[in-house]
Amino acid sequence: MEIHRFEKAWLGFALLLIVGLIATITYGAVGPGVAMISDSGGTIDSSALGEHEQFSDPGVRQVGENEYDVYVVAQQFIFRPGTNEPITLPADSTVTFHVASADVIHGFSITGTNVNTMAIPGQVSKITVEFDDPQTYGLVCHEYCGAAHHEMAGTIEVVPQSEFSIEGTDSGVADLTDEDADADGGEN
């Protein structure tokens, strides 16, 4: 049986496309570091978020030098904090977001970054990101969560370190303001 040269060319082209498709899928699955939500954030009773130590008063907490934890509650149709008041963070810092849902599945996506996770009732989603430069980011829910889903948005403001302060921090890490630095001779 003889195969015509054009048939051989098309057969080779089809095999090349199949190999290329498999290579593309393999790279997409393991190459850019995409991962599913893990259980590293832990579980939580979504009906009792008001009784939880961190989620009863969600917000920013300093846990080390230039390291912050942000506790966010997603509920129909707001992020607390984020929607009514922006989440304010310092530039040149590493931030770990702990996101919990109070009611249904929500999305948590920070526009302009690679932060994109789901907030599932009963589970705490944990994701770490570095903010290098002062900038304002949008915060959106990308999972349909009800009739006003399209209005579920918020803001993250990254400000210069000199303009950042946490009021009422219980992290045990002292925040020195300019007045405090002047009072002790500028020593940290």
Walk me through this protein's architecture.
Residues 168-188 are annotated as: Disordered. It is found in: Cell envelope. With 188 residues, the chain is α+β, with helices and mostly antiparallel strands. It has a domain at 41-165: Immunoglobulin-like. The chain is 17% helix and 31% strand. It contains 2 helices and 10 strands. The protein has helices at residues 5-30, 178-183; strands at 60-64, 67-75, 78-80, 87-90, 93-101, 106-110, 116-119, 125-131, 135-140, 153-159. Strands 1, 2, 3, 5 and 8 form a 5-stranded mixed sheet that branches. Strands 4-10-9-6-7 form a 5-stranded mixed sheet, with no helix packed on it. It starts with a helix and ends in a 5-residue tail after the last helix. The model is unreliable at 168-188 (pLDDT under 50).
Q: What does the overall shape look like?
A: elongated
CATH topology of the domain at 41-165: Immunoglobulin-like
Largest sheet: 5 strands, mixed
Amino-to-carboxy terminus distance:
86 Å
GO molecular function, one term: copper ion binding
Domain Cytochrome oxidase subunit II copper A binding: 65-170
GO cellular component, one term: membrane
Keywords: Copper, Metal-binding
Please specify the SSE layout and strand pairing.
Layout: H1 5-30, E1 60-64, E2 67-75, E3 78-80, E4 87-90, E5 93-101, E6 106-110, E7 116-119, E8 125-131, E9 135-140, E10 153-159, H2 178-183
Parallel strand pairs: 2-5, 4-10
Antiparallel strand pairs: 1-2, 2-3, 5-8, 6-7, 6-9, 9-10
GO molecular function: copper ion binding; cytochrome-c oxidase activity
Subcellular location: Cell envelope
Domain Cytochrome oxidase subunit II copper A binding: 65-170
